[in-house]
Amino acid sequence: VQQLSGMLTELFQRARLEKPGQVDPRAAEYTVSLLAAMYDRSGTGYIKTRSAAAALIALSGDTLLAKYKAFFQFYAVPDGKVALITRSALRSLLTDLNQIPAIVGESCALSCVEIATQSCFHGVLNSAIVEEKFLSWLKSEPAVLLWLPTCYRLSATEMVSHQARCR
């Protein structure tokens, strides 16, 4: 948690320099607090790097496709010339991502993660899938992660302005 705090402090300091007045001075503190509430409920002082990365990617302002590709990069394993994501890695990713809605009381049961994993691997004979199959599955908006594209769309529409006037 201390290392994560240091990295986030540096990250938000750079962001404050790039966008003066737009980054709260306590952003790193708030983010570490959120990550600890999601991934260190027992107060051990440790958060898995992959879990923190998944949350930061999910909560970033990047496009959905960029987020999905980053998830694959963090959870996939190299297999020769390609990277693959295994069933267990997908379960880990979904479990990590489900801590985000869980923090506001909107989590699903572990059976949701298993059902989603089975749907992603439906018709797949191998123990792992390539990025294309993974991205295709995510683009179908599986129920277990429906909150992610929904939040993305909500944040994307915040900047929309229409030139129409109401009466």
Automatic annotation (TrEMBL):
A biological process from GO: synaptic signaling
Regions that span the bilayer: none
GO cellular component: plasma membrane; synapse
Alphabetical list of InterPro entries matching this protein: EF-hand-dom_pair, EF-hand_dom_typ2, KCMF1/Dystrophin
Residues in EF-hand domain copies: 65-154
Domain of life: Eukaryota
Stated name of the protein: Dystrotelin
